[in-house]
Amino acid sequence: MHSYANPLRLGRILDAVYPWALAGVVVLAPVGLWMSLVVAPPDYQQGDAARIMYVHVPAAWMALFVYVVIATGSAAALIWRHPMADITARAAAPLGAAFTGLALVTGSIWGKPMWGTWWVWDARLTSVLILFFLYLGYIALHDAFDDPERGARAAAILALVGVVNLPIIKFSVDWWNTLHQPASILRIGGPTVHPSMLWPLLTMALVFKLYFVCVLILRVRLLLAERRLASLATERS
Amino acid sequence: MLRAAVALLERDLRLARRRFGENLLVVGFFTLALALFPLGVGASPDVLGRIGAGVIWVLALLAVLLGLDRLFQPDLEGGGLEQMLLSPAPLELLVLARCLAHWLGTGLLLALASPLLAILVHLPAEALWALPLTLLLGTPTLTLLGSIGAALLAGSGKGALLAALLVLPLDIPVLIFGLSAAEALIAGLDATGALLFMGAFLLAALALAPLATAAALRLALG
Fold first, then answer.
1. What is the ipTM metric for this complex?
2. Measuring CA to CA, which residue among A94, A90, A93, A92 is closest to residue A149?
3. Å between B97 CA and nearest CA of chain A
4. How many domains does chain B have?
Protein backbone atom coordinates (compact mmCIF):
# COMPACT_ATOMS: atom_id res chain seq x y z
CA MET A 1 0.00 0.00 0.00
CA HIS A 2 2.80 2.41 0.86
CA SER A 3 4.41 1.88 -2.49
CA TYR A 4 1.44 3.73 -3.97
CA ALA A 5 2.48 6.81 -2.02
CA ASN A 6 4.88 7.46 -4.86
CA PRO A 7 3.06 9.85 -7.21
CA LEU A 8 4.88 8.50 -10.26
CA ARG A 9 3.90 4.91 -9.57
CA LEU A 10 0.33 5.98 -8.81
CA GLY A 11 0.32 7.99 -12.01
CA ARG A 12 1.38 4.94 -14.04
CA ILE A 13 -1.45 2.87 -12.56
CA LEU A 14 -3.95 5.64 -13.22
CA ASP A 15 -2.74 5.91 -16.81
CA ALA A 16 -3.22 2.15 -17.23
CA VAL A 17 -6.75 2.15 -15.78
CA TYR A 18 -8.03 5.29 -17.44
CA PRO A 19 -8.48 4.07 -21.06
CA TRP A 20 -10.39 0.96 -19.89
CA ALA A 21 -12.70 2.96 -17.68
CA LEU A 22 -13.25 5.51 -20.44
CA ALA A 23 -13.94 2.76 -22.97
CA GLY A 24 -16.42 1.23 -20.52
CA VAL A 25 -18.31 4.50 -20.25
CA VAL A 26 -18.32 5.10 -24.00
CA VAL A 27 -19.58 1.59 -24.77
CA LEU A 28 -21.93 1.04 -21.85
CA ALA A 29 -23.56 4.48 -21.58
CA PRO A 30 -25.49 4.17 -24.88
CA VAL A 31 -26.33 0.52 -24.07
CA GLY A 32 -27.56 1.46 -20.59
CA LEU A 33 -29.59 4.40 -21.87
CA TRP A 34 -31.11 2.32 -24.65
CA MET A 35 -32.00 -0.45 -22.20
CA SER A 36 -33.55 1.93 -19.70
CA LEU A 37 -35.33 4.25 -22.14
CA VAL A 38 -36.47 1.74 -24.79
CA VAL A 39 -36.18 -1.90 -23.70
CA ALA A 40 -37.34 -1.66 -20.10
CA PRO A 41 -41.15 -1.79 -19.76
CA PRO A 42 -42.98 1.27 -18.47
CA ASP A 43 -44.05 1.05 -14.85
CA TYR A 44 -47.59 -0.32 -14.44
CA GLN A 45 -48.55 2.65 -12.24
CA GLN A 46 -46.17 5.44 -13.12
CA GLY A 47 -45.82 4.80 -16.85
CA ASP A 48 -42.78 6.24 -18.57
CA ALA A 49 -42.17 8.75 -15.79
CA ALA A 50 -40.60 5.95 -13.75
CA ARG A 51 -37.68 5.86 -16.19
CA ILE A 52 -36.05 8.70 -14.27
CA MET A 53 -35.26 5.93 -11.79
CA TYR A 54 -32.41 4.82 -14.05
CA VAL A 55 -30.65 8.11 -13.34
CA HIS A 56 -31.93 8.81 -9.85
CA VAL A 57 -31.06 5.51 -8.21
CA PRO A 58 -27.49 5.19 -9.57
CA ALA A 59 -26.84 8.83 -8.63
CA ALA A 60 -28.06 8.18 -5.09
CA TRP A 61 -25.93 5.02 -4.83
CA MET A 62 -22.92 6.98 -6.01
CA ALA A 63 -23.65 9.73 -3.48
CA LEU A 64 -23.17 7.17 -0.72
CA PHE A 65 -20.34 5.28 -2.43
CA VAL A 66 -18.25 8.42 -2.99
CA TYR A 67 -18.62 9.35 0.66
CA VAL A 68 -17.32 5.91 1.59
CA VAL A 69 -14.36 6.53 -0.74
CA ILE A 70 -13.70 9.89 0.93
CA ALA A 71 -14.03 8.45 4.43
CA THR A 72 -11.72 5.53 3.62
CA GLY A 73 -9.19 7.85 2.03
CA SER A 74 -9.42 10.21 4.99
CA ALA A 75 -8.88 7.40 7.47
CA ALA A 76 -5.83 6.20 5.52
CA ALA A 77 -4.54 9.78 5.32
CA LEU A 78 -4.94 10.27 9.08
CA ILE A 79 -3.60 6.89 10.19
CA TRP A 80 -0.69 6.38 7.80
CA ARG A 81 -0.23 10.00 6.67
CA HIS A 82 -0.72 8.57 3.20
CA PRO A 83 -0.50 11.58 0.84
CA MET A 84 -2.18 9.90 -2.12
CA ALA A 85 -5.12 8.79 0.01
CA ASP A 86 -5.81 12.41 0.85
CA ILE A 87 -5.48 13.47 -2.78
CA THR A 88 -7.94 10.75 -3.81
CA ALA A 89 -10.42 11.84 -1.12
CA ARG A 90 -10.05 15.46 -2.11
CA ALA A 91 -10.47 14.67 -5.80
CA ALA A 92 -13.62 12.66 -5.10
CA ALA A 93 -15.38 15.32 -3.00
CA PRO A 94 -16.79 17.58 -5.76
CA LEU A 95 -17.91 14.46 -7.65
CA GLY A 96 -19.75 13.20 -4.59
CA ALA A 97 -21.40 16.58 -4.14
CA ALA A 98 -22.44 16.52 -7.80
CA PHE A 99 -23.92 13.00 -7.55
CA THR A 100 -25.79 13.98 -4.39
CA GLY A 101 -27.09 17.11 -6.07
CA LEU A 102 -28.16 15.04 -9.08
CA ALA A 103 -29.96 12.54 -6.84
CA LEU A 104 -31.77 15.37 -5.05
CA VAL A 105 -32.76 17.15 -8.26
CA THR A 106 -33.92 14.03 -10.13
CA GLY A 107 -35.76 12.84 -7.02
CA SER A 108 -37.47 16.20 -6.84
CA ILE A 109 -38.47 16.06 -10.52
CA TRP A 110 -39.75 12.52 -10.00
CA GLY A 111 -41.56 13.49 -6.81
CA LYS A 112 -43.58 16.29 -8.36
CA PRO A 113 -45.81 14.08 -10.59
CA MET A 114 -45.81 11.03 -8.27
CA TRP A 115 -46.07 12.50 -4.78
CA GLY A 116 -47.58 15.79 -5.89
CA THR A 117 -44.77 17.79 -4.35
CA TRP A 118 -41.21 18.76 -5.16
CA TRP A 119 -39.98 18.14 -1.67
CA VAL A 120 -41.03 16.51 1.58
CA TRP A 121 -39.12 16.80 4.82
CA ASP A 122 -38.95 13.09 5.48
CA ALA A 123 -36.02 11.15 6.84
CA ARG A 124 -34.54 9.98 3.52
CA LEU A 125 -34.63 13.35 1.77
CA THR A 126 -33.42 15.23 4.83
CA SER A 127 -30.53 12.87 5.47
CA VAL A 128 -29.42 13.07 1.84
CA LEU A 129 -29.60 16.86 2.05
CA ILE A 130 -27.36 16.63 5.13
CA LEU A 131 -24.97 14.50 3.07
CA PHE A 132 -24.89 17.23 0.44
CA PHE A 133 -23.91 19.81 3.04
CA LEU A 134 -21.31 17.46 4.51
CA TYR A 135 -19.69 17.34 1.07
CA LEU A 136 -19.76 21.14 0.84
CA GLY A 137 -18.33 21.46 4.35
CA TYR A 138 -15.56 19.01 3.49
CA ILE A 139 -14.64 20.98 0.37
CA ALA A 140 -14.80 24.33 2.16
CA LEU A 141 -12.73 23.10 5.10
CA HIS A 142 -10.09 21.70 2.75
CA ASP A 143 -9.61 25.18 1.29
CA ALA A 144 -9.94 27.11 4.55
CA PHE A 145 -6.28 27.07 5.55
CA ASP A 146 -3.16 28.66 4.14
CA ASP A 147 -1.29 25.46 4.92
CA PRO A 148 -2.70 22.75 2.61
CA GLU A 149 -1.51 20.00 4.97
CA ARG A 150 -3.58 21.44 7.80
CA GLY A 151 -6.64 21.77 5.58
CA ALA A 152 -6.26 18.18 4.42
CA ARG A 153 -6.13 16.75 7.92
CA ALA A 154 -8.93 18.94 9.27
CA ALA A 155 -11.15 17.90 6.36
CA ALA A 156 -10.24 14.25 6.97
CA ILE A 157 -11.42 14.49 10.58
CA LEU A 158 -14.68 16.06 9.42
CA ALA A 159 -15.16 13.32 6.82
CA LEU A 160 -14.83 10.64 9.50
CA VAL A 161 -17.29 12.43 11.78
CA GLY A 162 -19.77 12.57 8.91
CA VAL A 163 -19.73 8.79 8.50
CA VAL A 164 -22.48 8.59 11.16
CA ASN A 165 -24.85 9.91 8.49
CA LEU A 166 -24.35 6.96 6.11
CA PRO A 167 -26.28 4.27 8.03
CA ILE A 168 -28.98 6.85 8.75
CA ILE A 169 -29.44 7.43 5.01
CA LYS A 170 -29.38 3.74 4.14
CA PHE A 171 -31.89 2.69 6.79
CA SER A 172 -33.97 5.86 6.96
CA VAL A 173 -36.63 4.33 4.71
CA ASP A 174 -36.89 1.26 6.95
CA TRP A 175 -36.80 3.04 10.30
CA TRP A 176 -39.34 5.72 9.50
CA ASN A 177 -42.55 5.73 7.50
CA THR A 178 -41.95 8.01 4.58
CA LEU A 179 -43.20 8.80 1.13
CA HIS A 180 -39.95 7.43 -0.22
CA GLN A 181 -40.18 3.73 -1.06
CA PRO A 182 -38.23 1.24 1.07
CA ALA A 183 -35.13 -0.57 -0.18
CA SER A 184 -35.92 -2.84 -3.12
CA ILE A 185 -32.54 -4.07 -4.36
CA LEU A 186 -30.24 -4.75 -1.40
CA ARG A 187 -32.74 -6.30 0.96
CA ILE A 188 -33.27 -9.53 2.85
CA GLY A 189 -35.15 -11.91 0.55
CA GLY A 190 -33.67 -10.63 -2.69
CA PRO A 191 -34.61 -7.73 -4.94
CA THR A 192 -38.28 -6.91 -5.48
CA VAL A 193 -37.53 -5.30 -8.82
CA HIS A 194 -38.40 -7.34 -11.91
CA PRO A 195 -35.31 -8.40 -13.93
CA SER A 196 -36.55 -6.42 -16.94
CA MET A 197 -36.04 -3.28 -14.87
CA LEU A 198 -33.19 -4.53 -12.69
CA TRP A 199 -30.75 -5.14 -15.55
CA PRO A 200 -31.03 -1.63 -17.06
CA LEU A 201 -30.67 -0.23 -13.56
CA LEU A 202 -27.53 -2.22 -12.82
CA THR A 203 -26.05 -1.28 -16.20
CA MET A 204 -26.67 2.38 -15.50
CA ALA A 205 -25.12 1.94 -12.05
CA LEU A 206 -22.02 0.48 -13.70
CA VAL A 207 -21.90 3.40 -16.16
CA PHE A 208 -22.08 5.87 -13.26
CA LYS A 209 -19.32 4.03 -11.43
CA LEU A 210 -17.02 3.94 -14.46
CA TYR A 211 -17.72 7.59 -15.16
CA PHE A 212 -16.75 8.34 -11.56
CA VAL A 213 -13.51 6.39 -11.99
CA CYS A 214 -12.69 8.33 -15.18
CA VAL A 215 -13.26 11.76 -13.71
CA LEU A 216 -11.61 10.77 -10.44
CA ILE A 217 -8.45 9.80 -12.34
CA LEU A 218 -8.49 13.11 -14.23
CA ARG A 219 -8.93 15.03 -10.99
CA VAL A 220 -6.22 13.09 -9.15
CA ARG A 221 -3.84 13.86 -12.03
CA LEU A 222 -4.84 17.51 -11.84
CA LEU A 223 -4.21 17.70 -8.09
CA LEU A 224 -0.88 15.90 -8.48
CA ALA A 225 0.15 18.37 -11.18
CA GLU A 226 -0.95 21.29 -9.00
CA ARG A 227 1.11 19.97 -6.12
CA ARG A 228 4.13 19.52 -8.34
CA LEU A 229 3.69 23.05 -9.65
CA ALA A 230 3.51 24.45 -6.13
CA SER A 231 6.66 22.60 -5.05
CA LEU A 232 8.50 23.75 -8.19
CA ALA A 233 7.44 27.33 -7.45
CA THR A 234 8.79 27.12 -3.89
CA GLU A 235 12.00 25.53 -5.13
CA ARG A 236 12.59 28.34 -7.58
CA SER A 237 11.88 31.18 -5.18
CA MET B 1 -5.37 12.92 35.69
CA LEU B 2 -8.84 13.71 36.88
CA ARG B 3 -7.38 16.50 39.00
CA ALA B 4 -6.21 18.35 35.91
CA ALA B 5 -9.68 18.16 34.40
CA VAL B 6 -11.29 19.36 37.63
CA ALA B 7 -8.76 22.19 37.88
CA LEU B 8 -9.53 23.25 34.32
CA LEU B 9 -13.25 23.10 35.05
CA GLU B 10 -12.80 25.23 38.19
CA ARG B 11 -10.73 27.77 36.30
CA ASP B 12 -13.24 28.02 33.47
CA LEU B 13 -16.13 28.39 35.89
CA ARG B 14 -14.28 31.08 37.83
CA LEU B 15 -13.65 32.95 34.59
CA ALA B 16 -17.27 32.50 33.55
CA ARG B 17 -18.47 33.83 36.91
CA ARG B 18 -16.31 36.91 36.62
CA ARG B 19 -17.44 37.58 33.08
CA PHE B 20 -21.03 36.63 33.64
CA GLY B 21 -22.18 39.44 31.38
CA GLU B 22 -20.60 37.70 28.40
CA ASN B 23 -22.66 34.59 29.03
CA LEU B 24 -25.78 36.68 29.33
CA LEU B 25 -25.10 37.89 25.80
CA VAL B 26 -26.09 34.44 24.55
CA VAL B 27 -29.38 34.69 26.39
CA GLY B 28 -29.76 38.24 25.09
CA PHE B 29 -29.38 37.00 21.52
CA PHE B 30 -31.84 34.19 22.24
CA THR B 31 -34.51 36.59 23.49
CA LEU B 32 -33.93 39.33 20.98
CA ALA B 33 -33.97 36.95 18.02
CA LEU B 34 -37.25 35.50 19.29
CA ALA B 35 -38.67 39.01 19.43
CA LEU B 36 -38.08 39.25 15.68
CA PHE B 37 -40.63 36.51 15.00
CA PRO B 38 -43.79 38.26 16.17
CA LEU B 39 -42.62 41.21 14.10
CA GLY B 40 -41.82 39.01 11.11
CA VAL B 41 -44.72 36.54 10.97
CA GLY B 42 -47.34 38.59 12.79
CA ALA B 43 -48.20 38.58 16.46
CA SER B 44 -51.35 36.45 16.29
CA PRO B 45 -51.28 34.02 19.24
CA ASP B 46 -52.28 30.93 17.27
CA VAL B 47 -49.50 31.36 14.67
CA LEU B 48 -46.93 32.00 17.41
CA GLY B 49 -48.28 29.14 19.50
CA ARG B 50 -47.96 26.75 16.59
CA ILE B 51 -44.40 27.65 15.57
CA GLY B 52 -43.19 28.80 19.01
CA ALA B 53 -41.59 25.58 20.26
CA GLY B 54 -39.77 25.07 16.95
CA VAL B 55 -38.55 28.65 16.84
CA ILE B 56 -37.22 28.46 20.39
CA TRP B 57 -35.38 25.21 19.63
CA VAL B 58 -33.86 26.57 16.42
CA LEU B 59 -32.77 29.75 18.16
CA ALA B 60 -31.20 27.75 21.00
CA LEU B 61 -29.29 25.75 18.39
CA LEU B 62 -28.07 28.94 16.72
CA ALA B 63 -27.18 30.52 20.07
CA VAL B 64 -24.99 27.52 20.93
CA LEU B 65 -23.40 27.82 17.48
CA LEU B 66 -22.68 31.52 17.96
CA GLY B 67 -21.04 30.90 21.32
CA LEU B 68 -18.59 28.38 19.90
CA ASP B 69 -15.83 30.84 19.01
CA ARG B 70 -15.17 31.32 22.73
CA LEU B 71 -14.62 27.61 23.25
CA PHE B 72 -10.97 27.39 22.16
CA GLN B 73 -10.04 30.65 20.46
CA PRO B 74 -9.04 32.66 23.62
CA ASP B 75 -6.86 29.79 24.83
CA LEU B 76 -5.31 29.37 21.42
CA GLU B 77 -4.29 33.02 21.39
CA GLY B 78 -3.16 33.05 25.01
CA GLY B 79 -1.15 29.83 24.86
CA GLY B 80 -3.44 27.95 27.23
CA LEU B 81 -4.07 25.26 24.64
CA GLU B 82 -0.37 24.39 24.46
CA GLN B 83 -0.41 23.86 28.21
CA MET B 84 -3.46 21.61 27.88
CA LEU B 85 -1.65 19.63 25.21
CA LEU B 86 1.53 19.32 27.28
CA SER B 87 -0.24 18.29 30.46
CA PRO B 88 -0.07 14.60 31.36
CA ALA B 89 -3.87 14.39 31.44
CA PRO B 90 -5.39 13.18 28.17
CA LEU B 91 -6.52 16.04 25.96
CA GLU B 92 -9.87 14.30 25.43
CA LEU B 93 -10.66 14.59 29.14
CA LEU B 94 -9.69 18.26 29.20
CA VAL B 95 -11.87 18.86 26.15
CA LEU B 96 -14.76 17.26 28.01
CA ALA B 97 -14.16 19.53 31.02
CA ARG B 98 -13.98 22.57 28.76
CA CYS B 99 -17.22 21.61 27.01
CA LEU B 100 -18.96 21.11 30.34
CA ALA B 101 -17.86 24.53 31.56
CA HIS B 102 -18.89 26.10 28.27
CA TRP B 103 -22.27 24.38 28.38
CA LEU B 104 -22.91 25.63 31.92
CA GLY B 105 -22.43 29.15 30.57
CA THR B 106 -24.54 28.72 27.42
CA GLY B 107 -26.84 25.69 27.09
CA LEU B 108 -27.87 25.67 30.74
CA LEU B 109 -28.69 29.37 30.66
CA LEU B 110 -30.66 28.91 27.44
CA ALA B 111 -32.65 26.07 29.01
CA LEU B 112 -33.32 28.17 32.11
CA ALA B 113 -34.42 31.14 29.98
CA SER B 114 -36.66 29.08 27.69
CA PRO B 115 -39.83 29.15 29.90
CA LEU B 116 -39.78 32.93 29.75
CA LEU B 117 -39.58 32.78 25.96
CA ALA B 118 -42.37 30.21 25.88
CA ILE B 119 -44.63 32.70 27.64
CA LEU B 120 -43.68 35.39 25.14
CA VAL B 121 -44.96 33.29 22.22
CA HIS B 122 -48.15 32.09 23.97
CA LEU B 123 -47.16 28.45 24.35
CA PRO B 124 -49.37 26.32 26.63
CA ALA B 125 -48.37 25.75 30.25
CA GLU B 126 -46.84 22.32 29.51
CA ALA B 127 -44.14 24.07 27.48
CA LEU B 128 -42.84 25.72 30.64
CA TRP B 129 -41.23 22.45 31.68
CA ALA B 130 -41.16 20.55 28.38
CA LEU B 131 -38.87 23.07 26.63
CA PRO B 132 -36.27 23.35 29.42
CA LEU B 133 -36.28 19.57 29.82
CA THR B 134 -35.60 18.86 26.15
CA LEU B 135 -33.08 21.69 25.92
CA LEU B 136 -31.24 20.35 28.98
CA LEU B 137 -30.95 17.01 27.21
CA GLY B 138 -30.19 18.45 23.77
CA THR B 139 -27.88 21.43 24.23
CA PRO B 140 -24.96 19.42 25.72
CA THR B 141 -24.98 17.33 22.54
CA LEU B 142 -24.99 20.52 20.49
CA THR B 143 -22.02 21.89 22.44
CA LEU B 144 -20.08 18.64 22.01
CA LEU B 145 -20.78 18.49 18.27
CA GLY B 146 -19.95 22.17 17.99
CA SER B 147 -16.63 21.63 19.74
CA ILE B 148 -15.55 19.51 16.76
CA GLY B 149 -16.22 22.38 14.37
CA ALA B 150 -14.67 24.95 16.69
CA ALA B 151 -11.51 22.86 17.03
CA LEU B 152 -11.27 22.19 13.30
CA LEU B 153 -11.43 25.91 12.59
CA ALA B 154 -9.34 27.08 15.56
CA GLY B 155 -6.74 29.53 14.34
CA SER B 156 -7.97 29.50 10.74
CA GLY B 157 -9.33 33.02 11.03
CA LYS B 158 -12.45 31.75 9.26
CA GLY B 159 -15.64 33.08 10.66
CA ALA B 160 -18.84 31.70 12.03
CA LEU B 161 -20.24 30.99 8.58
CA LEU B 162 -17.89 28.12 7.85
CA ALA B 163 -18.40 26.81 11.39
CA ALA B 164 -22.13 26.81 10.71
CA LEU B 165 -21.64 24.88 7.47
CA LEU B 166 -19.61 22.23 9.30
CA VAL B 167 -21.70 21.90 12.44
CA LEU B 168 -25.30 22.47 11.36
CA PRO B 169 -25.62 19.23 9.32
CA LEU B 170 -24.55 17.28 12.41
CA ASP B 171 -26.96 19.22 14.63
CA ILE B 172 -30.04 18.41 12.58
CA PRO B 173 -30.86 15.03 14.20
CA VAL B 174 -30.69 16.61 17.66
CA LEU B 175 -33.10 19.31 16.51
CA ILE B 176 -35.52 16.78 15.00
CA PHE B 177 -35.74 14.59 18.08
CA GLY B 178 -35.54 17.46 20.56
CA LEU B 179 -38.40 19.21 18.90
CA SER B 180 -40.54 16.10 18.46
CA ALA B 181 -40.04 15.31 22.16
CA ALA B 182 -40.94 18.87 23.14
CA GLU B 183 -44.03 18.95 20.97
CA ALA B 184 -45.21 15.53 22.19
CA LEU B 185 -44.82 16.65 25.80
CA ILE B 186 -46.64 19.91 25.11
CA ALA B 187 -49.49 17.99 23.46
CA GLY B 188 -49.60 15.59 26.41
CA LEU B 189 -48.43 12.59 24.35
CA ASP B 190 -45.85 9.94 25.11
CA ALA B 191 -42.37 11.27 24.32
CA THR B 192 -40.33 8.34 25.63
CA GLY B 193 -38.98 7.31 22.23
CA ALA B 194 -37.72 10.75 21.26
CA LEU B 195 -36.28 11.34 24.73
CA LEU B 196 -34.43 8.02 24.60
CA PHE B 197 -33.02 8.96 21.19
CA MET B 198 -31.81 12.27 22.63
CA GLY B 199 -30.20 10.44 25.53
CA ALA B 200 -28.51 8.10 23.06
CA PHE B 201 -27.22 11.06 21.03
CA LEU B 202 -25.85 12.65 24.20
CA LEU B 203 -24.06 9.48 25.28
CA ALA B 204 -22.62 8.90 21.82
CA ALA B 205 -21.46 12.52 21.62
CA LEU B 206 -19.93 12.31 25.10
CA ALA B 207 -17.99 9.23 24.08
CA LEU B 208 -16.95 10.15 20.54
CA ALA B 209 -16.92 13.93 20.09
CA PRO B 210 -13.96 14.56 22.45
CA LEU B 211 -11.87 12.17 20.35
CA ALA B 212 -12.50 14.16 17.17
CA THR B 213 -12.15 17.51 18.96
CA ALA B 214 -8.86 16.53 20.58
CA ALA B 215 -7.52 15.26 17.24
CA ALA B 216 -8.47 18.57 15.63
CA LEU B 217 -6.84 20.57 18.43
CA ARG B 218 -3.60 18.62 18.13
CA LEU B 219 -3.71 19.42 14.45
CA ALA B 220 -4.33 23.12 15.13
CA LEU B 221 -1.24 23.26 17.32
CA GLY B 222 0.85 21.33 14.84
1. 0.79
2. A90
3. 21
4. 1
